[in-house]
Amino acid sequence: MKKLIFTIASILLFTGATLAQKYGYIDSGYILENIPSFRAAQEQLDQLSAQYQKELEGMHAEIEQMYKDFQAESVLLSEDMKRKREDVIISKEKEYKQLQRKYFGPEGDLYQKRQGLVKPIQDDIFAAVQEIANEGSYAVIFDKAAGTTLFYTNPRYDLSDEVLQKLGYK
User: Fold this and answer.
1) Residue 4 covered by a domain
2) By CB count within 10 A, which of 62, 94, 123, 129 is most buried?
3) Is residue 156 part of a domain?
């Protein structure tokens, strides 16, 4: 009997503690859109990406042309010349793939540049959210833009503008 009363009391205490906690949410997409340095960084990354893509497309077109020329001339070439041409095309394709990884790979130039430009902004946002959570005694703050499915959100609990104010933006 004492165990049953203790169990029921524990459940009621836990449920009451859970209901008393404060929750809030932010929209990190909205916050980032309202930070001019993020928009500038995003434009810079887009330009760099377009530059890399253009360079890779030019290299790919060159490889395609080399391959077409090889096919057209292959009947006139000796076996030794065919092998040399194939080796040149294969080495050019390897160079293309290496350059592609260098620019767009998981640790590539574009990723490194993004880390340098965007990560400090994201760190500032995280610090501001953490400060708001501590000041407001929030148990959890969700990010509605990060793929968390929130079926309904009351704008009264949206802390996005508060984060922007904490960062010094209107």
Assistant:
1) no
2) 129
3) yes
159 contacts: CB under 8 Å, gap ≥ 6: 24, 25, 26, 129, 132, 136, 141
Per-residue pLDDT 10s for the chain (170 aa) are: 555 454 565 565 555 545 567 888 888 889 999 999 999 999 999 999 999 999 999 999 999 999 999 898 888 888 999 899 999 999 999 999 999 999 999 999 999 999 999 999 999 998 898 888 888 888 888 888 866 655 456 677 788 888 888 888 87
Number of domains in the chain: 1
| Domain carrying residue 123 | 21-167
